[in-house]
Structures are given as structure tokens and as C-alpha cells.
Amino acid sequence: MSAWGCRSCTVSLLIDPEIAARVRTLELPFGADGIDPFGVSQRDLAWSYTLLGRLYRHYFRVQTQGIEHVPDRGRAMLVGNHSGGVAVDGLMVIASMFFEKNPPRLAHGMIEKFIADQPFAGMWASRTGQLVGLPEHATRLLESERLLMVFPEGARGTAKLFPKRNSLVEFGTGFVRLALQTNTPIVPFGFVGGGAAIPTVYNAYKLGKLLGVPYVPVTPYLLPLPLPVSLRVHYGEPLRFEGTGREDDDVIQGYVDTVKDRIAALIQDGRGAA
Amino acid sequence: MKIVIPGAAGAIGRALCKRLIARGDQVIGIDRRPWPDAPKELELHALDVRKRAAEDVLRRHRPDVVVHIGTVSHITRTRDDERYKINLGGTKAVFEHCERYEIPHVVFVGRHTYYGAGADAPLYHREDEPPLALSGFPELADLVAADLYAGAALWRVPEMITTVLRVCYTLGPSGDGTLATFLRGRRVPTILGFDPLFQFMHELDLVDALVAAVDRRPRGVFNVAGPPPLPLSTIIARAGRTRLPLPEFILAALLGHRGLPKLARGALTHLMHPVVIDDQAFRRATGFVPKHDAPATIATFTARHPTPAT
Asked: Is 3.30.1360 the CATH classification of the domain at A62-273?
């Protein structure tokens, strides 16, 4: 049997049939081979969600609130805080959109270029709808009525150390201009617990450079592996701003601050509920 | 209509000539490659388009349109200087003659690989994007130069309608073209850990698109594509071939040996990252719609080119 065939049987063992069935209810234009125009693969989604589901339900026992604020269809932007030095926050938001929404939705994140350049990691990202963070990708996904996940803190946000885990660092402003240009509602979310899951005490930038990543988060037990703490994600009511995206910086900054305040309030909500 | 086609004896050229002749156009081909069983209605000149005699053909005929498909692929290993002369030199000659003899419409058929592949290149390139990956794939330079030279005619010779097409890979019964050549063997090499989207269209759909360009005469630069792209692994599986995933450095060392295709080193980036184009502008300008979907396109290729026996 070919290498392809062998790979298929191995992968099949990792797929929960119920989850595979749920993947088929995603409202995306999959073709005959289970591939959508952005290269998202039903098969890769199925095994990825099988794995994510275990993390979401059993390892982190994620508590999600306010899922009804996410539109059932049509373009929307999920905008929230980074929580934890590796991408646990993004993965759990993606999982909540799949497991909590009916019908499920695929949240498209924007990944760093260095991930797209890694063998396997880049392939897995693109097959699960996680495209490189380029303005062209963000615009095109929204114009295709997709759900975009944005962390305006960027890499500064994932680098937050343990004592600062529930604070917000400076927000980029591009996401508000993008929302205005494409007339997209912003659904704010607050993510709580990621900082405790990966209690970063130090970020090793030089080691990261050697490994070809921005930095390596160091925990008291050295490895940046997440602890099984409970995580919470709270979604808030959609925010809609009127405009063209060509406004002056101070106008845009006002909108950014509005979103940031809502996210800070949702984080407080989440901490209170925990 | 009177049409001159430099590059008439290639796979697409032949199909285009037959289509145009069948609908009653007067077709004149220029190609230094032989076409022994060419249709008798075709006036075929066995000439290099850069030679003086090719200019005479244009001067004598003064066609309504010139469709230049006489460029060669940069992915497979033609000798660099030779390819450079054919792609840029040939294109320059065609446009100079068209300007001199006041040809009303010129169609240049370029390739979508113009945009280049890279981890930071967006999916669905629009026509206004610059070529991105020249540094990683210098073999592309002549193609990019020919494309930009052709596009410059839009402002240099405004009285002539210039249509520059950037066409995705083609696949079909001819077994000709970059992607078909790559898929021909039993084992198709890929790069371990990468599976880029590939965009391809049926060769007869490309002929439809060229006819639409000839008839609708859109002015400008247009991407031309068919059905939505597929991952390379899916294409290989559908073609009944076996994937041979190798680490990048091993594949680079093995190219052209052990039955593996001869690829330019830079072409390896095209096995890692996708080149996918947005063809909406061309569809809007011409009403072109491809007739073959991806599975049907691959099937017409494999029907004529089944997996070779061991």
C-alpha cells in the first residue's frame, strides 16, 4: 500500500466519528475532496477537533459564556486578550466556536510567518484555516463571510509574565480599521486562566532566536507545557463602528479603547465567575 | 477574423488553432517546433519569432489580433540563457512588430508563477500585486521581465489594446505543461511536511479563456484560473500516483536523478508554498466560466497518461 494509504489509516484512528460528522455541518464551501477555497480540509479539521475537544472538555475544562453573542453566520471578528505564552487561548476559542455553537463555526486565526515556514506545523495550520497574518488574508476571509479571530496585543500579549497575566498590553489598531473597511461586527472576548496554565516567569529571547521562534516561555518547571487548570472565555455583545477605515488615528484610537475596555470588563467577569 | 499565433505548435497553441479554424477564423501560426499533422487550413511558418521572417509574416498579414503563447516554462530546466532569449526576446519582438504594424489587439499569455511562492505571500493574488519571490527563484526573472514588458505596452502603445494574461497551471489529455510533466511518473516527489495548494485548469478551458480574450478584447492585466485550488497531495492521489515525501535538502540533491523530474532549485519553494490567484476580474471582463471541475480535469489527464508500470 502507498504511503498515502498508510497515513490515512493512522489518521482515521485519531478521528472521533461524531466530530467528523459535526465537521460536515460547518457551513463552508467544501469541494468534492473536502477542501474549501482557502485549503481548509475536512479531514484535518476532524482529527484536530478530536484532539482539541479532549483538551477543551477534559484537560482544561473550559467554561464558555456568551456564545450567543457570536453571529451564527456572516462576517464577524472575535477580538480578545492573549492569555498564556503558547497558543492555548487561540486553540480554545477555536474549540468553543466548534463545540458550543450550533451550527458550528470555524474561527480563522492569523498565524506568524515563522509557523507557516515550519514543516508540518505550517501545513497543519493552513489545512485548519489558520492563515499567515497578512492584511490581504484578513480582508478576504471577512469578505468571504468568515469568522476571524484577532488578538490585538500580538506577540507582546503572549509574552506577558505570570504576575501580569490578567492585564492588557498595548493594542494594535489595524483590527479596527479592518472592521470599518469591511463593515464587520467586533465580538469582544475575555480569556482567563491561560496565564496560570503556562505560568511564564521568563521569556528566553536568545534561545528563541536559535530555534527560529520569537522567544521561548520558561516556567518554574522549565518547559512551556500547560498545566491542567480551568480556563474561562467570556464573549460580549457585538460592537459595531461606523466609518471607512481611513479615519485619523485619534478617532481609531477611541474605538480601540472602547474594545479594550470591554475586553478588560469581560476578563473581570471571568475572574469573578471562576 | 485574422489571427496570428506565435507559439502555435505547443499543446495549448494547437488546441487554440483548431478551435479558431473550426469557427471560421483565418489562423496563421509561427513556431520553430514542428507540427506534422497540422490542419490544412492553418498557415504555419516554421520560424523563430525573433527572426526577420517572422516580422514579414505580421507585415504581410496585418492580423486583427496576435495571441502570443510562445513562452517556455521556467520550472523545468531549460538552459537559462536560451530560455531568457525565448521568453523576453520573443515577447519583445512580438510587441515591437505589433506596434510597428499597428495591430489593434495583442494577447500575451504569461503564467501565474509570476507572483512567486513564499510563506508570507497571500493566497489569491490580485493583478496589482508585485512579483514577490524573485530572490528565492531567480529562474523566474525572464518570465517576470516578459510579463512586465508586455504590460508596459498598456501605457507605451495606448492605441493598441493589450491583454496580459497570468494563467494558472493547465492539465489535460496532452500531458503537456509544468504540472503534467511533474505528475507524469509513478512516484511524485513532494517536500516532507508541506502540502501547498495548486491551482490548475483544463487545457480546453484555457482555450475557451483565450477565445474569450480574443473576442471581448479586455484591456489590462488579468489572472486566469479554473476551479478552486487543491492540495498537491490530493492531486497526486487523484491522479493515481504515489507521493514520495522527502526532506527539502534530500529532494534538492536528487532532482533529475532516479527518475525524479528535473526541477530548478527555486521551484522547490513552489512545492512548499502555494501560488493561488484571484481570477474574478477576468471573469467579469469576459464572462468566462470554466467547464471542467478539478476531479474531471485530473481524470482527463490520467485517462491518457495512466500511472506508468514498474
From this structure: no
